[in-house]
Amino acid sequence: MPPEQLAPDLWRIRVPLPFRLREVNLYLVRGDHGYTLIDAGIDTADARSTFDGALGELGLTESDIERVYVTHMHPDHIGMAGLRARAGSRVFIMREEERRARFVWGTEPFSDWITHAREHGAGGDVAEGIVVAVTMLRKAVTLPERFEFVADGEVVEAGARKLRIVWTPGHSDFHYVLVDDEARVIFCGDQLLPTITPNIGLYPECRPNPLEDFLWSLGRFEREATYTILPAHGENYATLPERLGQFRTHHEERLAGIRSQVVASDGAGATAFDIVRHFWGDKLSTHELRFALVEVVAHLEYLRFAGDVTRETVSGIQRYRS
Ligand SMILES: [Zn+2]
Question: Quick check: pTM over 0.85?
């Protein structure tokens, strides 16, 4: 499929994903001294051929890409970054996100993940399933040998455009978006998705309160009410204030639902996994179960930091009480 042209110097390339979330949008900006790519896509055979085909349709080769801005370390955003670097592109990420990328996509054993799943009440089968899923994803990520870094508030180049870096923790600790104040558009990665809320999960070795981080990040876009959002998944939209309200409502409702489960469990207390089972039963794939578990933990920890619930470790299992 040919890339869609969104502006004289801007194209969107849709790259297929092997998940229920079917594709990721990469954005390509033309410049006089090379092209800029925003997000790199996952590294699968399908994704490679789609991306290379899209470049070919524009009469380009990979060596025409001078810069790649990777919004965060998830596999659908960072996966092909190593291929771009090998072809000579400079690859940019936030400094602290590199450590996370090398930890998750490197060769570290998964003992932390197994412990994390078990202490939140998941059985050994679930923990094993998580390890299998992450091991498979490692094959779909090729990291560059070295990254260059962007920092919050910095203004960077993409062709003739000037893009302002805004740190938006929550979905990933050092996720960032790129704001073009002249064209009034935001390349938002996974931060401001149009139809789904990004997964907000507490993972091993992460910042302690990702939901609070995410809600704080939403507050960084008060002045961009009329901007057009170019998301990594789904279609463009220009109704940001309404969308910000929907994200807040979604998490308020989820917090209330989770809190009521903790209250209902009093006596024994509830584990995160008990709450996952309550809301989703056994309808989830291992991949989805992993996201649901870390998402519930993130909400429980938010409630705990707010003083609404307490946590106690009983025989190695974290139980939450009201
Ligand atoms: Zn993501």
Answer: yes
Distance 314 CA to ligand 1 centre (A): 33
- Residue closest to 71 by CA, chosen among 153, 172, 163, 161: 172
Q: Which residues sit opposite 15 in a β-bridge? A: 24
Domain ranges of the chain: 4-109+137-240
Between the CA of 134 and the centroid of ligand 1 the distance, in Å, is 14
Share of the chain above pLDDT 90, in %: 82
Comparing CA positions, the residue from 234, 150, 133 lying closest to residue 191 is 234
Facing residues of 321 across strands? 310
The DSSP call for residue 254 is H
- Rounded Cα distance, 231 and 192, in Å: 7
Could you tell me the distance, in angstroms and rounded to a whole number, from the CA of residue 80 to the centre of ligand 1?
14
pLDDT tens by residue, 173-195: 999 999 999 999 999 999 999 99
Q: How far is the CA of 222 from the centre of ligand 1 (A)?
A: 23
d(CA 259, CA 102): 35
Q: How many CB atoms lie within 10 A of CB 284?
A: 16
User: Does residue 296 contact residue 276 with C-beta atoms inside 8 Å?
Assistant: yes
CATH class belonging to 4-109+137-240: alpha beta
How far does the centroid of ligand 1 lie from the alpha carbon of residue 200, in Å? 9
